[in-house]
Amino acid sequence: MEHHGPPGSTSGDIALSFDVGGTFTDFVAVDMTTGQIASRHKVLTNARYPARGVMRGWRDMAETGLRAESIALTVHSTTLVTNALIERKGARTVLLATKGFRDLLEIAREQMYDIYDLFAPPPEPLIERPLRLEIEERTDWQGMVLAEPTPESIHQAIDAIRAARAEAVAIAFLHAYRNPANERLVAEVIRAALPDVIVSLSSEVAPIAGEYERTSTTAADAFTKPRVRDYVSELERAIGESGVTVPLHLMLSSGEIASAATAMERPIRLLESGPAAGAIAAAFFGDLAGYPDVLSLDMGGTTAKACVIENGAPELAQVLEVARVRRFMKGSGLPIVTPVVDLIEIGAGGGSIARRDELGLLKVGPDSAGADPGPACYGLGGTEPTVSDANLVLGYLNPDYFLGGDIPLRADLAREAVGQLGASLGLTAEDAAWGIYRVVNENMAAAARVHIIERNRDPRSLTTIAFGGAGPAHAAAVARILGSPRVILPPGAGVASAFGALVAPLAFTAGRTLMTRLDSAEWDAIQAMYSELEATATEALARAGAERSAIRFRRWAEMRLEGQYHELAVELPDGPLGPDSISGIRAAFDAAYREHYGRVLEGLPIETLHWRLSAIGPEQGIGVARQALSDAGASVAVTGTRPAWFGEGFIQTTVYDRERLRPGMTFDGPAIVEECEATAVIPPGDRARVDEHEAIVVEIGAAYTEQVTDQ
Predict the structure, then answer these.
(1) Preceding amide of 180 cis, omega within 30
(2) What is the Cα–Cα distance from 640 to 705, expressed in whole angstroms?
(3) What is the secondary structure of 339-363 as a DSSP string?
(4) Residue among 334, 337, 315, 332 nearest 206 (CA)
(5) Strands, sheet with 24-31, edge to edge from the N-terminal-most edge strand
(6) pLDDT tops 50 at residue 165
(7) Could you tell me how many helices (H) and strands (E) the chain has, helices first?
(8) Residue ranges of the alpha helices (H) in 141-180?
(9) How many whole angstroms separate alpha carbon 425 and alpha carbon 432?
């Protein structure tokens, strides 16, 4: 595989990141002194043993000159937790619940996620009923202990845990978020009796109101903890044996970096690790190009993720769903309470499978061929037509330069797979491939449009930042459908998520539930709660290597008008909180309410549910150096031409080498830009330029928009 020059440093100034995705594992090494990407690499993900896939990629990079002693920072993002929950491949876990509440995981919200399907199956609980046990105890909603856990029920639970050979225990008692005393008492006894069993407490994992959500999150944390612990420990050991001496950091779902030890304590925080890194990368490159409001479009081999970024930062959500029965239907999955970058997942990736549905129409996704067996063109056993196969038939991909030639593509197998689908639809292979390309683009645009409008934004006001192995091939077409005026393809777009993990902040977010009206809040209790949160977050950052004196804090609360159901996140002022803060908090809430709903309801009391804090460490010092503009024309980067399909037939299309494009160069579509990890498609009517940070900026042309509309 072609790499892009070994890092020439021996003084420990290289930052290394690796991102394990559903199809590929990406690597990026950045020289921290120059801001240049020193090396990048991509290998197929080892789904069964992901740590082995990581070490294979590391050995590949070491062979090209990346020395272990030059590495000053390592950051990892992963889909391990998500996959463990989807595939139900976690630890044998026991749930301890308050007596009478063992079936909470199945009762859930007592709502049907599909009101038109009376037989829609509910999400299957992670913990089966025989392993859900009851403890006689009770705490009321104000946190008063009404009954301590009885010794008899505790010892019966211990005997059952031992008999079940459980590896983990989730403890979720009623109202434990207000008073964790009963949970802690039971945990202490279990740890003494069964020291090899991992214990997760709801009062530590998700100390918030909402019994079902809190119990579901705690069960997921316990279920995944042994696997995450073993995986991270194996990875740390293997990296250490390779000669790397710096500690491993992990990307959290919130877009923050934490130590491996902190991540292993609460593995549920890793749930959206990889997608969060992509959103951080988009925010970074958008800000670098002077566009703080952007749409992040991350299209990999398995899925695409879209995220709205405003003022240079993605919005955070506090709840997400995983392991959905119907992958893209809200309410059909397991709710997880954890800070997470607010993005939408779309069943559109290079491996998304195309088929003829029951109505005889072309359908693409959401199921994917993944890395094994992969698209038909990989020649690894896959036979179903995928998006990658369609792109190869359309002439967008170079069969001899996919992953720099590491995976030669079989054009004959791609054409056979797509051709068979086309025949079932009465289409030629080219028309079927064009249909696949357009359908998957429409799918992404439709999902992204809803995501954008739900955040009260206009798609036409957002620049699209596209990356991932498949993103640059589809970005211009998706942007045109949305009305987005331009697309930015960052340098190393195919491995941008891995880069995002390097520019993410060293930070840690924690929160508590304390329901109160703003005008009658107990400010002493709130100050004490924030002092406790600051201590917890500071300790987490200190373990990751941050100097305590360099840590800063950001506080916000989730608030609503009394009687409403949905909350808004409102930034809290610096300094002590008290009655004098109410007017400032009220003004901030009114501003957020107006931004979200378009008006403000005057005179109604404000209710606060959750109080949150982020501790933020010093920046990692990663940047991208500004380059001088070149006087040369883009023709110096031309490697040739090849026919590519753009709707009505093949057009002879100029092919550019991304590595030879320099800042200041411009060129018009149709064009194809090749690099090892991704291929960009610039349709007719669009104009591309290379900016001072080596990103390709594609201005979407009106002429081609009208052409597509007329067809």
Answers:
(1) no
(2) 27
(3) EEE--EEES--TTEEEEE-TTS-EE
(4) 337
(5) 37-44, 24-31, 14-20, 71-78, 248-251, 257-259
(6) yes
(7) 17, 33
(8) 151-164
(9) 8
> What tokens were used for 372?
């094994």
Q: Which of 106, 140, 477, 112 is nearest to 304 (CA)?
A: 477
* CA pair distance 552, 285, nearest whole angstrom: 24
669 closest CA partner among 649, 654, 659: 654
Helix (H, G, I), strand (E, B) or coil at 258: strand
CA distances from 539 to 200, 531, 616, 630 (A): 19, 12, 12, 48
Cα distance from N-terminal residue to C-terminal residue, the chain: 41
What is the maximum alpha-carbon separation in the chain? 82
541: left (phi over 0), alpha (psi -120 to 50) or beta: alpha
172, two tokens? 């979720």
Burial class (CB in 10 A: 0-12, 13-18, 19+), 400: exposed
Rounded to an integer, what is the distance from CA 413 to the centroid of its chain? Answer: 32
Query: Which ranges constitute the DSSP H helices of 518-633?
Result: 523-543, 582-597
- Enter the tokens of residue 452: 């954008």
State which amino acid sits at residue 210: G
Q: Which residue has the tokens 């951080």?
A: 280
Q: In this structure, what token pair is assigned to residue 711?
A: 């067809």
pTM over 0.90: no
Q: Three-state SS for 425?
A: helix
CB 411 within 8 A of CB 392: yes
Residue type for position 444: M
Phi/psi for 664 (5° steps) reads 100, -20
Which one, of 210, 188, 205, 184, lies nearest residue 197 by Cα? 188
Q: What single letter denotes the amino acid at residue 553?
A: F
Would you mind telling me the total number of residues written for the chain in this entry? 711
DSSP run (H or E) holding 433: helix 429-453
Contacts of 438 (CB under 8 A, 6+ apart): 477
User: 4-61 pLDDT, tens per residue?
Assistant: 433 333 446 888 898 887 778 889 888 887 777 788 888 888 777 888 888 888 888 8
Q: Which residue has the tokens 């509309």?
A: 709
Closest CA to 691 of 622, 638, 627, 637: 627
Contact call for residues 88 and 217 (beta carbons, < 8 A): no
Residue 186 structure tokens: 């039971």
Measured in degrees and rounded to the nearest 5, phi and psi for residue 171 equal -110, 120
Q: Are 364 and 353 in contact (CB under 8 A)?
A: yes
One DSSP character per residue, 279-337 reads HHHHHHHHHHTT-SSEEEEEE-SS-EEEEEEETTEEPEEEEEEES-SSTTSTTSSEEEE
* Strands of 577-645, DSSP E: 606-616, 638-645
| Residue among 312, 683, 280, 684 at smallest CA distance from 463 | 312
Nearest one of 213, 298, 226, 242 to 501, comparing CA atoms: 298
Q: What are phi and psi of 23, to 5 degrees?
A: -115, -45
Reduced to 3 states, what is the DSSP secondary structure of residue 370? coil
Which pLDDT score, from 0 to 100, does residue 441 have? 95
For 443, the enclosing helix (H) or strand (E) is helix 429-453
Partners of 73 in the β-ladder: 15
The amino acid at 167: E
pLDDT 10s digits, 196-217: 999 999 999 999 888 999 999 9
What pLDDT digit, counting tens, does each position of 282-303 carry? 999 999 999 999 999 999 888 8
Distance from chain centroid for Cα 434: 29
Q: Which helix (H) or strand (E) holds 191?
A: helix 181-193
Q: Environment class of residue 381 by beta-carbon count within 10 Å: exposed (0-12), middle (13-18) or buried (19+)?
A: exposed
Q: How many CB atoms lie within 10 A of CB 520?
A: 7
Report angle CA 84, 89, 95 to the nearest 5 degrees.
95
**Confidence (pLDDT) at 102:** 93
